[in-house]
Amino acid sequence: MPIAASQRLQALPPYIFAELHRRRRAAIDAGRDVIDFGVGDPDRPTHAFIIDRMTRAIRDPKNHLYALGGGTPAFRQQMAAFFADRYGVELDAARELLALVGTKEGIGHLPLAVVNPGQTVLVPSPGYPVYQAAAIFAGAKPYVLKLEPDRGWLPDLDAVSHDVTQNAALLFLNYPNNPTGAVATREFFERAVAFARERDLLVAHDAAYNELYLDDQPPPSILQVSGARDVAIEFHSASKTFNMTGWRVGFVAGNPDVIAALAAVKANFDSGVFGAVQEAAAEAFQGIDRPEVREIRSVYRSRAELLCQGLQKLGFQAQPPAATFYVWARVPPHVDSMSACNRLLDEADIVGVPGIAFGPTADDHVRFSLGVPAERIKLAVERMGAIQW
Ligand SMILES: *Cc1c(COP(=O)(O)O)cnc(C)c1O
Description:
Bound molecules: pyridoxal-5'-phosphate
Oligomer: single chain
Strand order of the largest sheet: 2-8-7-6-5-3-4
Distance between the termini: 47 Å
Number of domains: 2
């Protein structure tokens, strides 16, 4: 008899990235020259100064042991120093910071730490699919918060009814936003913190892209809002900023009770981030203003401009993002996101992610990741020109 997957697993919407990966693979195996704007991975290697630190750290026997305790003191102190420099926020390194096996891991486990079965979790649409999956795994009910372009892709928190929040424990936010590239203002975070107080819930802000800003100013942290630590936590990641997606390291900062609860959950799932990787990540964040780290912003900026020109030719509406390495393009009228992506792959060997992968309200958009060199983007733009809707 086949073994059935659990009800919780069956309750998840299909992970569209997996299906996309399969179709992309099939095209490559068929010998086609696929240009992949799909999964959000940087195309460049991790910076040399980080690899140098790693090669030293890996020889240190103390790094060969379980890295229990939610991050070494050196890791936590470095992340606290980063927070003080970047945001002017002083964190208690021992109680208000926790190392993660990538922010995805922390996001995935968070509802198990702070949400009871049957409670509601507010998740943005479009949004990173893990928020919804994490809620479902904890037996909670996701409630879709629609993000709309005319509000700068910020949710209208005042429009959320008290009926919805009466039983809600958690609100996920993500700015700079995947997939839209939108950035939040300090005022919006003030509103979000006030909302969390009024409605008695926790705000989990995913700031995985805070250092991939393409304008001149680093985006704010929600923890800059006074009193935010009473009701909020914030996730940060080494992955996108330093081309370290494979290394699996990030951290969460903010409310100490939530940090302690998440640490207790994690103690049952993982035994810490490899100590050498913690050293390398600390080195990375220490080098946040190095020229080679800053350079990537102008690279993504020029790639975004190139790609948007091509998409506009194709009949999509697309503007370079304020941050992130994504272009969130609106498909022509009467085309849905999945068929747009299927045609891009079938007729132009181009992979994009259909908006529907990011939520029920996003079927009129496609996301393009900018982990593709300029030459390949130019080629993609040429190929797009041949498609007629
Ligand atoms: C990539 C991404 C993450 C995952 O980051 P890791 O630190 O690699 O786990 C988290 N949130 C969003 C919105 C992302 O796009």
